[in-house]
Design goal:
It contains 4 helices and no strands. The chain is mainly α. The protein has a domain of 68 residues. The longest helix is centred in the middle third of the chain and has 22 residues.
């Protein structure tokens, strides 16, 4: 006796990818409505927060350490900060500086993430820490915001 599948994806052979079920017209309309109200700046803000948090995890969580991934994340946040609304960019600068310091401490280098040469035609990077702080004694491998 052959049973009829109860769901369209139930008939897919084992081992083959099963995508999400197709959206109903009502779900499609609701999704379109939600997407029409999303601003790119809002998505960038959420992305920056997620990337910054993930980068910090890749530095401090002993079972997740991956400094290459952390560096990519830091560089990505530095690149996106200028595209964020001013108040959000200001709010991101301090946590970004903290993650950069953690990276420098963990990697044991004086090199800060994002120190790659500026691409031709790109605007030079602005210091993220605001006004330069007075010189402080520098420990081995510690990057300090506002210092070159």
């Amino acid at each position: 006796m052959t049973e009829e599948p109860t769901h369209p994806n139930d008939s897919v052979p084992a081992g083959e990818a099963q995508g999400p079920p197709p959206l109903t017209p009502e779900e499609q309309e609701l999704l379109e409505q939600q997407m029409s109200q999303v601003r790119v700046e809002d998505l960038l803000t959420q992305t920056v927060a997620s990337v910054l948090n993930l980068s910090a995890r890749r530095i401090v969580k002993e079972d997740e350490i991956d400094l290459d991934q952390a560096r990519i994340g830091i560089d990505a946040v530095r690149a996106l900060v200028a595209l964020l609304p001013a108040e959000v960019g200001e709010a991101v600068r301090e946590p970004l500086s903290q993650v950069q310091m953690l990276y420098a401490q963990r990697s044991g280098t004086d090199e800060e993430p994002g120190s790659a040469p500026v691409q031709p035609g790109a605007a030079p990077e602005q210091p993220l820490g605001g006004p330069a702080e007075p010189e402080k004694p520098k420990g081995p491998g510690l990057w300090t915001p506002g210092r070159d």
